[in-house]
Amino acid sequence: MTSDRLARARLTYLAEPADEALNALVKDVGAARAMEMIESGSPGQTARWRQRLADVPDTVDLTEHARNGIRLVCPGDPEWPSRLDDLGEQAPYALWVRGNGDLRFACLRSVAMVGARAATSYGCYVASEIASSLAARGWAIVSGGAYGIDAAAHRGALGAGGVTVAVLACGVDHPYPAGHIELMKAIAADGVVMSEWPPGCNATRLRFLTRNRVIAALATGTLVVEAGRRSGALNTARHARDLERPLMAVPGPVTSEQSVGTNMLLRDWQAAVVTKAADVTAFLGPLDPENPPDPVQPVLPWDELDPSLKAVLDALPARGGASTEQVAAAAGVAFGTALKCLGGLAAGGFAQRCPEGWRIRRAHAAEGVK
Amino acid sequence: MTSDRLARARLTYLAEPADEALNALVKDVGAARAMEMIESGSPGQTARWRQRLADVPDTVDLTEHARNGIRLVCPGDPEWPSRLDDLGEQAPYALWVRGNGDLRFACLRSVAMVGARAATSYGCYVASEIASSLAARGWAIVSGGAYGIDAAAHRGALGAGGVTVAVLACGVDHPYPAGHIELMKAIAADGVVMSEWPPGCNATRLRFLTRNRVIAALATGTLVVEAGRRSGALNTARHARDLERPLMAVPGPVTSEQSVGTNMLLRDWQAAVVTKAADVTAFLGPLDPENPPDPVQPVLPWDELDPSLKAVLDALPARGGASTEQVAAAAGVAFGTALKCLGGLAAGGFAQRCPEGWRIRRAHAAEGVK
To answer: Kindly report the CA angle at B284 between B280 and B290, in degrees rounded to 5?
Structure first.
């Protein structure tokens, strides 16, 4: 591990994320030198960061974390989602990531779906339907892993065999809420569970709010499905607006407390009205001329794919389908590599799940890009 | 009766409304001469209007109609709503009117509330609540007298002691639907039941659509409460848009067939989101700097009121309230005159109903305009 990676890993223990002064220092002198300055008690504003020095491990054993399925993703890594750089001095120091999905690939074409914990059956139904339909069209669903709308959105994506990303406000080793441990395992199977906070860290009220900026920053656009007057989802919506990301909301009954926030976003913030998944793709699609909503197009040119992705894509049938084992054998890669590549290819619009396993996404095959 | 009024009354028997060629002819040569030309079979495009000549009475006995509570309102009459002139060559030839309200006064500050006949309990509840609240703030409610949203809007206004206007697609002497005969009587007590078609005329599918342009034209703005994909309310919305009148819609569950149209208006037509009456007044209020939404201000300067209105306004108490009989006695006018003036003063923002009867509207009294 480079000293920069180690320092960034240690910074996630030292300071809360979105610390603009710390990010400015890291930008000025690099993460390793910043950590040294803090540890040696250099003069300046570093004193307040020393309060937590005792909690910061001297070294971080990434091999040990990998044994638990946890990896560190730093700025500049292939898996680093470049959209996070839009957060500027509020960008994460590093990310702790679990799951077989590729975070950057997943986020390239993704929708953040957020909403009330105390959601109604209406909100949960709509979240699940829209997430499922978006996932089937190759969009990844980013959410916060909470009860209510978040869980319905994650589950909708999983039900369609899609990729979903849970952004937590605690360590990825013990997700909050505990009732979602099985959901997090299911998300990690093809997608990603991630956090700015290191393993072992607990969620707090403030951390949920800090976390919300990452949800808004990761996704192409943010859709608020159901939100009461003071829902945390409105905080995510504000971040999306501040980042000038597309903001959408699902209308709801004016008689429902849980739609007061979403109807407010439509009325006062000019959020786009979403009644179904096609409204999302129509709204987000035209933003990228390379990425028309229908048929779904790959998000990257084929020749920019890395060799293992190309090998797996080459191994995919255009009709019928092949199991992950068959794809791995045909591509000459390990099973785990094949699984990860397939997730990335699906999120990128190159591959799709089908009853028999995996195949090339149709619009792609029709154009003979393979 | 002048020859112009008689000719206009006869034109309502002769031709369907919104006949642009007929309106152009009337504009060119006047109603009386146009009627003469049609009866004498002048050359030109008047031939097609002769088909119904046999159905047109030679004379129209307005005294006889008055005995049945029906009056004729022609362009230029004090009660003619000048907004109808915005319809240009689709303006009505004349209006047949029933009720103790003053049509022009009522429409000065009014909201057209329309929606599905096959409305849900949600739609009816919201229509009734918003109409009631708007009526209590001195806004008149214009609608079409149909089952569903229309009836809920009329009833909401009546429940708040407000003024409401029913625009029918048949003669005002036998309202359609027959199940609303009692509702029409209640509307006529303080408000107006009106039609472009003469007494005795039946409603047809086409007439409902023709009628919708008048609903949109009469009101300050149009609010669609609930509408399915093919609801006639969307036709009214289109007229409001074509007239560049403010268009609003109530969001509804994306799972409800009866909110597909309203959510579409919000998404594709940029209709303003309305969740409560205050959204309507906030949206319509700023259009007229003389007419801020809160507190409610009169729509006309006091010194432009006619003598009987001034007399009735002078007779109103600022605190407590007076019955219509007491107001009539204090103002020295007939009971019927007092009732009509009070309706006009309420619609105009000068007077309000209260448990004891009538009093000066508070914002008005506070400014000492009286």
So the answer is: 135
Quote the ipTM score: 0.74
pLDDT digits (tens, 9 = 90+) for B35-78: 999 999 887 767 788 888 998 999 999 999 999 999 999 999 99
pLDDT at B8: 97
Name every chain A residue with its beta carbon within 8 A of the beta carbon of B113: none
DSSP string, A67-93: HTTEEEE-TTSTTS-GGGGGGGGGS-S
At residue A298 the predicted structure's pLDDT band, cuts being 50, 70 and 90, is: low
CB-based contact A273 B263, cutoff 8 Å: yes
Q: Please indicate if any CB of chain B lies within 8 Å of the CB of A255.
A: yes
Which token pair is B278? 């205050």
Which helix (H) or strand (E) element contains residue A167?
A: strand A164-168
Within-domain flag for A30: yes
Residues B50 and B107 in one domain: no
CB of A266 less than 8 A from some CB of B: yes
B135: domain CATH number is 3.40.50.450
Q: For residue B328, what are the domain limits?
A: 302-366
Q: Kindly report the CA angle at B222 between B218 and B228, in degrees rounded to 5?
A: 125
CA distance B270 to B239: 15
What is the 8-class DSSP label of residue B113? Answer: E
CATH number at residue A322: 1.10.10.10
